Amino acid sequence: MLGAIIGDIAGSRFEWNNCKRKDFELLHPSCRPTDDSVMTIAVAEAILEADGDWDRLETAAVACLQRQGRRYPRAGYGGSFRSWLNSDAPQPYNSWGNGAAMRVSPAGWAGQSLEEARLIARRVTAVTHNHPEGLKAAECTAALIFLARTGTPAAALRAEAERWYPLTQTLDEIRPDYRFDVSCMGTMPPALEALFEAADYEDAIRGAVSVGGDSDTIAAICGGMAEALFGIPEELRRQGLRFLDAEQTDIVSRFEAKYGAK
Questions:
Q1: Which domains does the chain possess?
Q2: Which of these, 18, 85, 92, 132, has the minimum number of CB atoms within 10 Å of its CB?
Q3: 0.85 surpassed by pTM
Q4: pLDDT tens digit string along 181-191?
């Protein structure tokens, strides 16, 4: 899950000022965790609270998403999600937004089987993003993380990804005309292509950011999968954790102690 957080932080300063190249300072002092990181940590916290009882997971997800979201009210939430965060009776709102995929990486680590990873992804996602495209993006992301962390090679991962989304363009072909797109349908293909063109974790993040558009979210989605495929260099882990506060770091540490990291 830290892979998604570092991707979000790296892309944060380019969300509204895109950088259409890969040669940039990865973790600049002006970077910050956005809603992608806050909600990834909230999903991890919900999974920890459910403690394997997935019938409790939706209730835990609502509580943790609202608690963490209210702790960081200026993290950059979309309007519909902000209303959900502040509701006394929150209900799913049929969203197909890319928030479904950017926060779901903990599900890919907590699942002890492919089916369980997908189940966890559906349950933490459906409390808000219950549109079929939202659920699809979350399940795809969690499934690829599970498969990557359990040893599936990149070529087989790509074949699996293409069962979910057509990957018909390279990053060089996507980059020139790509624009801001908050839909799962417009976000998942470039995030996946950045993963499959990468040589390592850092290269995946650089490729994802270089697409432009919703840079932090593309990099968060790609980064969650890239961690499972490549692992994160130790120095980059240390740099990324410096952007989190004590409570956020504690949740990340407890989640990784229980479910592992690569």
A1: 2-259 (1.10.4080.10)
A2: 132
A3: yes
A4: 999 999 999 99
